Structure formats: C-alpha cells, structure tokens
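Reviewers asked in the last cycle whether our approach scales beyond single polypeptides. To address this, we selected a multi-component target totalling 797 residues and predicted its structure end to end. The input consisted of the following lines:
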Amino acid sequence: MTRALQIALLQVRIYLQDKSDLAFSLLLPVVTFALMYFVFGGQTHFHATVHIVDEDPGGIYSNALIERLDALDELNVELLSLDKADRKLERSDLLMFIIIPEGFSDRLASGEPVQLLFKQRGNGGQEGQIVAALVRSVADDISLGLQVRGQVTAALVGIDVPVNQIETTVERLLTEERESPTVAVTEDTIGSSPDPVKQFLPGIITMYVLFAIILSARTLVEERQLGTLERLLTTRLSIGQLFAGKFIAGISRGFIQTLILMALSYAVFQIFTPLSFASSLLVALIFTCAASALGLIIASAARTPDQATWMGVFFTMAMVMISGTFFPIEEGSVMETVSRFSVNTYANDALTTLISEGGSLADVGFEMGILAGVIVVGLLLSRYLFKVMPGGR
Amino acid sequence: MVQPRLVWLIALKDLKLFSRDRMALFFFILFPFMFVIMFNFILAGIGGEDDRLVFRLVSLEEETETALSYQIIAAMVTPDESSLQPGEPLIIREDDYDELRRQVEEKEIGGFLVFPADFTEGIYSGRGAVIEVVADPEAVNYRAALHGLAEEISSWIGAEYVVRSAIIELAGEQAPAILESLDSQVVTGESLIAYTSEKVGEVEAEQPSNYVIPGYLVMFVFFAAALSAEAIVRERQNHTLERLLASSVRRSTLIGGIFTGTAAKGLVQIIIFWTVGILVFNIDLGVAPAAVIILSFLMVIVSAAFGVMLATLVKTDRGAGSLATLSALIMAPLGGCWWPLFIAPQWMQLLAKATPHGWANEGFNKLMLFGADFADVAPEMLALVIFTIVFGGIAVWRFRTAAA
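The resulting structure, written as structure tokens, was:
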C-alpha cells in the first residue's frame, strides 16, 4: 500500500508542478462558469429589437417616437426599408415590424388622428407582442402630450392667456409629471429566479474533474509505450500495487482539483454551510474514485497516447452533454432517460441536493450507490484490461 | 519566394495524415453532429410561442362609483375577445387577489396589475398613488409587458392631472367653473394615435440547426486548427522541419505549406458541415448564400493562421496541446459557439468581438437567422481578414524550424 501511495504522491507532485495542467484543470472551469453565469444568470430584463419602417422621415413626431423607443433600456431600434422589412417578414427572419405612415407628424401636429401599422406573423410572437405593448405605451404618451395641450388650449378659449404661456406651462407640468408621476409603478416579485451559481456549479466542477482525470489516461499509455511501467516491475513493485497507485493517483489529482474549486466557490459565493461543504466533498471523493476507475479503463483499452486522448475527450464530452450540465433536463422527458447513462448526472444530482436543496447525505444514497457501483465495475474491468507493456499482460 | 508546388505537397501530406487519422476524423467531423442532433432535439419549437398576451387587473379598493381603479379597469377590459386584432392583448378584470398571487407562486401565470386600496384617495388628495406589478421574477418578458401597461395607465392619469393643474394655474378665478364644465374623469379624450395590425401568416419556430450548426462548425474548425499546432511543434522537435530546410524547401514555403494544410482540413470540415446541414438538417443559408460561403472560407483562413501562430508560441508538443485545448474551450463559449450571442448580455456580445469566433458567429447569425444580405456582413468579413493578418503576421515573425 505504501508503494501505491508513493506512486500516487509522485503523480500529484507532477500535477501541481505542471502549469499548463493546472491552468486547464483550475482556470478553465472558472472561466467557463463565469461565462455561463453572465449569459444565463444576468438576464433579468427584457431586451429586444423593434423594427421600424419610417415613411415619415425627419418628421418631428416620428423622430420623437423613434428616439424615445431607442432610449428605453428594453429596446433598440432598427430602421428598415419597406421592401427589406416585407422580405424579412416573408422569410420569418422577423415576426413583426411597425410602419410609421407618411404625414404622421404633420397630421399629429394639426390634431388629426393617425395610425401606426403593426405588420406581423400571427400575434407577432411573444417578443413581438411585448415590443408592441412598449411601443403603444410610448406612442400613447406622445399622443397624451398633444391631447393635453389641445385640451388646455380649448378650455382656456375666451380667457386672455397667451398661447406661449399655455405652451410653456403645459410643457413644464408635463416634465414635472414625467419626473414625479402622480401614479408611480412599483413591483412586487413573488419567488426567486433560479440561482445560476447553484444551477451550473456542480456540473462545471464534475465536468472538468472528469475531463482532467480521463485525459491523464494518456500519461499511463505513454509510460507503457516507453517501457516505464515494465521497468517499475523489475523493482519489488507488483502489478497490483502499480494498478492501485495509478488508481489512487487519479483520485488524489481529481480530489485536489475539486477541493480547490469548491473552496473557491465557498469563499466567493457562500453557497455552503460547513456541513454541506463536508458532505459535498465526500460526494466529490466518490465521484473522483469513479472517474479514476473509468480513466483506467480508457488507459488500459487505448493502444496509443493519441487514442487515449480521443477516447477520453469523446467519453467526457458525451457524459457531460447528456447530463444536463449546460441546460436543465425536463422531468419525464426522453433526455432524462438518456441522462441516466451519464456518471455526471448522479454526481450533479447529489451535489445539487446538498447545495441547493439543503439535503443531507441520507438524501443522496441512491446517487452514491450508483457511483459506488461504477467504481466497483470500473475497477474490475480496468484491472482485467490493465497491461504494463504494449500487447502484454 | 514561395514554391507553390512544394507548398501543395506539404499541405497534401497534412491532409493525407488527417484523412487517415480515424480518431481525428471522428472527433472533428462526426462528433460535432452529435451536439447538433442533441441541441436540435432540445431546442425544437423554441421561438414558436405565439399565444396572445393576457393582462390581469385587480383592484383592492372598495367598489364604489367614485373608485377610479374600477373606472380604469372597466375602460380597459376586453369586451369581446373575438374582436381583438392580431397581437392585441386580452385584458381581464380579476377579483381574487390571493388566488392570483397563488397562481404566480405556482408559476401558472407570469403576473398581474394591482390597484391598491388607497388608489383613488391617493390621487384626489394629491399625495399620489401607485400601481403595483406583481410578477414572477423568472417571467422576464411578461414583466416588461406588465410594466408597459402600468406606465400607460400612469401616463393617462398624469395627463389628466396636468390638464387640471394647467387650467388652475392659467385660468385663475375662472378655473373652478372651467373644470366643472369638463367631463368629470376623462378630460384628455380619445388617443390621437390608433393602432392597426396586418397579419401576413403564422409564426414559424426557428430551426435550431440554423444557429447550432454554425456555432459548432466555428468551434470545431478552430479546435482542429489549434490542435494542428501540436503536430507542427512535434515536427519541430523531431527536426523534420530542419530536414525540410536542408533540402530545397524555403522557410516561406514551409510556413505556406503548413498553413495551406491546416486550411485544407478546415475546408474539408466546412464542406461536410454545410452539405450535411443542407441535406439532412434542412438549414437555411438565408438570402445571400454566397456570403455564408465567403464567411466560412474566411473563418477557415483565420483558424489556420491561428493554429500556426499557436505553434510558434510554445516549446513542447504537450504545451501546444494544452494551449490549443485551453484556447479552443475558452474562445468557443466566449465567441458564441455554445449559445447564440444574441441571448447574451450586451457587454458579453462586445467581449465576443475580441475573438474571431464572435465575428464569425455574428455573421452567420445575421445571414441565417435575421435575413441579412451581403453588405450587412461586410464588417464581420473585414474583422476576420484583420484577425488573419494579425495571427499570420505573428506566425511568420515567430516561426522557427529548430527547437532551440
């Protein structure tokens, strides 16, 4: 056992001294997680493009409408020609556009009613309907400004108030009303948004731990090809000890990586309690054991280092892909059944239970059982396939 | 002076090695399609949602003749759903506030608008009032729509208030009489801007393959090119490059051959990707298919330059492999290969511009999703050319045939 541990220690030392390996196993998960956090965690506000065909270019009110829409945080404006907008709508490249008709500004200025045309597919899609609601809100506000001026002017007919004074007063009051509205809009949100940290962190950690352990299978194949393993057998080291050493090396390497990543998450996001942290580490340890056993299978089955790399990359990406690391899997869907074939699914589920749902180790017994099963089967199979020289025993 | 025949021979050698490497062929050609198939399956139907928006309004005021909230709700509710134009929202009056809250909690509805118990009193007393948007924070889009409606109501009431205030300020002693002569509630009258809609067909969900295939194409073309750096470094380490120099091959020819070989592998990838995409996944190349082809070609060129440049930045083949994987796996999500850039926040879209992946993906999305024509993607093409010049320049400057 001591000899096996010595082999493991050597591998850990090599890992900690290899800058590129450290960057791959520690920097890459952090960068990937940060990107996913910002893409899927920061989207708390609606944002869309409103496509407008302006047939009243340069008009005071058409310009005002476009400028005010563009000033909204929720919208950005794209002006199109009628032909281009029609073509895009025809091809479903957009679902709705707005036509500001010719003479829009002149007619509004003279107090005549005008029409905005929403040209769309179906109801305009969900996004299109929301864009339309925002456009209506802004257009109504412009209309209300004009109506207020007209109404006040009409009400003051017969009273000696200069038009300029009416204009100035109404403008000032409208500005005051915009700055401090009579009716304010407040919001009460019920429930909470899914926390991207808890949603993605387990998947990202297990993905890169599996990646790192599986890819280290290449080293074992290289050692076999170079005769290093065979030379080791000329010492008092047995094949069993060598095998155990490589297995423990994989576990140690993966566990150190997990420990650093989880400790970082603990420090930065405060997502753990001391108990959930300890429980998560235990799950991580079981997972790294399973990953190490799987890595040994690949190392034993591959004939060349390149083959080990390709097999490792394919295996890891397939496991990650079907485990719902990057997207939630719906319960009862076909994908859920498929995901059950990934070892990552069980580790992710167990970590999610411990981190997000406040569960205990007793709640993750099933997942731990499956991972333990993978370890046993993986070890038996890899020991059976394990060779110290190419084509040899 | 470059020797074209030798360039071609070196490139052909790389291409032969690639075609015989079953693992590489599997990983760079078949493997991406596993992602494409899976994401096509998962994302199918997304973007096809077209149910009419439903707004629910509830008042907590006591229902009396003078309660403003009930007057507003009565003026807004849809009398007959069948009379609504396409895209016009359905507005419903609700009376059970607690039930609505429960529905939001259970995520059965996205939210609703509430007029509080002191709404009318707040307005008439001059203290001001509020309209409350009660919403599920996850219903980002619906919340925006509810806010739009609430702001619209706020504008109406504000306009009434401004009319009255202006008359009081300007008419002096005659103000009470004028105000009395106005309609008791609605002084601003009908909106001057009306809305009509014209429906030209039904909403069709976007085919996920139209953005999944370009994303994975960009990722795996760059991945393959980056990993070719490993082979270049290996040839440098085992003195193959020096041996070639010792024969009649010039340094420029060597760089040209390696670059052409890497680009040729990329070309094989894009030809297979687009062919399978069109024949199997029925992807739509948009109104300017020529622009898609040119953009793909530019992407291949820039990826080849990137691969050769990487080889000049590292000393060992192991280092090249690590750097290639690291750069491929960071630049791919950053540049919008894993998810479409248009769903990412604005600053991340900007950050994506630091990678050639970002420009290539934006160009493909513009052409294949948003109906752009050739001229619309000229900036993306130009950016890829600039990246090629930068990467290629560094590669030529740093290229060494000997390990030392």
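Chain A touches chain B through 109 residues (CB under 8 Å). We regard this as preliminary and will revisit it once experimental data from Aim 1 are available.
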